[in-house]
Design goal:
The chain is an alpha+beta fold. It folds into two domains: 62 residues; 73 residues, no CATH class. The protein has three helices and five strands. The strands form two sheets. It has a three-stranded antiparallel beta sheet, with helices on one face. Strands 1-5 form a two-stranded antiparallel sheet. It starts with a helix and ends with a helix.
Length: 140
């Protein structure tokens, strides 16, 4: 009887161990498959992000600089009455106003001539310089 029980015990232990090993192996395979699926999702997300970064990079590439201003800027205005001055002196005066930071806001007409209304931001804005363009490098 002993001779029959021992092989049976060995057989049942072997089958039991084999089943446990098989279950453990299946769990490990499922875990590996889930991990691979997560990796694939991450790769897809990275590819999409790369596409968005390329689009943003192309848009940023055209920016020459950035001016940071207050949310509610305060403006100052200047009214210049245009008389029958020569075109050259008018151009020179307008160019000087532009260099001083004035920009044309509107034109007012009247009997005695036209008035130009200019405006510029009071105070200073912070300017963040962009990368040098070929025309900027030539000026340096």
């Amino acid at each position: 009887m002993k001779k029959t029980i021992i092989p049976l015990m060995i057989l049942s232990l072997t089958l039991g161990c084999t089943q446990k090993a098989k279950d453990d192996s299946e769990k490990a395979a499922e875990s590996a498959a889930d991990s691979l699926e997560d990796v694939a999702k991450t790769i897809r997300t990275v590819r999409e992000t790369v596409g968005h970064v390329k689009e943003v990079g192309a848009a940023i590439n055209n920016i020459k600089g950035l001016e940071i201003t207050p949310a509610n800027p305060v403006w100052e205005y200047k009214v210049v009455t245009m008389t029958k001055a020569t075109t050259d002196s008018t151009e020179n005066e307008l160019n000087q106003l532009g260099q001083d930071g004035w920009e044309l806001a509107t034109r007012l007409g009247g009997d005695e001539g036209n008035s130009l209304v200019f405006k510029r931001r009071k105070g200073k804005a912070m300017l963040i310089s962009g990368k040098n363009t070929p025309s900027n490098k030539a000026k340096e």
